[in-house]
Amino acid sequence: MVFMITYILIILFVIFGLGGLRIINQYERGVVLTLGKYSGTYLPGLRWIFTGIQKIIKIDMRITTTDIPRQEAITKDNVPVGINAVVYFKVEKAEDAILNVENYQYAISQYALAALRDAIGGVELDVILTEREKIAAEIKTMVDTATDSWGIDVTAIKIQDIELPAAMKRAMAAQAESERARRAIIIKSEGEIKAAENLQKAADILGTVPGGISLRTLQTIEKIQPDPSKTVIFALPVEILEGFKSLISERKKKE
User: Taking Cα atoms as reference points, which of 216, 192, 190 lies closest to residue 203?
Assistant: First the structure.
């Protein structure tokens, strides 16, 4: 009878002992509550708790992401925009994440959402479109400061999409097209100025050569091949005769 009781006690002890074993993975920490009171944080490995008296809550210490769903916000210059983002964070102190906030993932998402609205409402649309990374950094600073007491480290916040009203998109497209047309006109005018400067230099050089301008005129006429059915009449000044002489002399030299 004694042997039987001892055997039963041993079995119960083994079952009780094995039932209290817990495995904590390398990327986790175990927050232990004894009779509802925080009593410590277990590191990774095989751990044991007193079943029925103690409770262990595992916390993932890896970087986690949470989405900020698309929100409608009004910019400083009263333009409605749809914007969404993603928050990257990790738990630095497992006990604070359990004891100081009910649901740290949900709390971070809501706080980041509010910070996003505040940031968008404080800047104009052009700033949002051109300085997205700067705005995201400001939101990260606000959220990271608020979540320090929760044992959370916000590593980054990325703004994903910025959706504009259809009328604003058309206006921006028209503005961009006008800007491209303006640049094209400026480039063309700069090319014409450069060409005029080169022509002026060429004219100055030809003016220093006796009969140079006339010779150039004759060379241009020589390249013209009009339709045989048409007649082209040129009114030439007398000095062009000198050009004819120069051209004939050059051809004789070449021959």
Answer: 216
Look at residue 21 and tell me if it is in a domain.
yes
Give one DSSP letter per residue of 127-178, joined into a string: HHHH-HHHHHHHHHHHHHHHTGGGTEEEEEEEEEEEE--HHHHHHHHHHHHH
Q: In a 3-state reduction of DSSP, which class is residue 63?
A: coil
Partnered with residue 82 across adjacent β-strands are: 72, 163
For residue range 131-177, what is the model confidence (pLDDT) as tens digits? 888 888 888 988 988 888 899 999 999 888 888 777 666 666 666 77
- Helix axes 240-254 and 212-223, enclosed angle (nearest 10): 70
Whether residue 48 is found in the same domain as residue 70: no
> Which helix (H) or strand (E) is 251 found in, with range?
helix 240-254
Structural domain of 16: 2-60
Residues 82 and 233: their CA atoms lie apart, in Å, by: 70
Q: Is residue 179 part of a domain?
A: no
CB neighbour class for 121 (10 Å; exposed up to 12, middle 13-18, buried from 19)? exposed
Q: What CATH number is associated with residue 141? A: 3.30.479.30
Is 178 contained in some domain? no
User: What is the spatial distance between Cα 22 and Cα 20, in angstroms, rounded to a whole number?
Assistant: 6
What's the sign of the alpha-carbon dihedral 114, 119, 125, 130?
negative
Domain-located, residue 182:
no
Residues 6+ apart with CB under 8 A from 17: 48
- What is this structure's pTM? 0.61
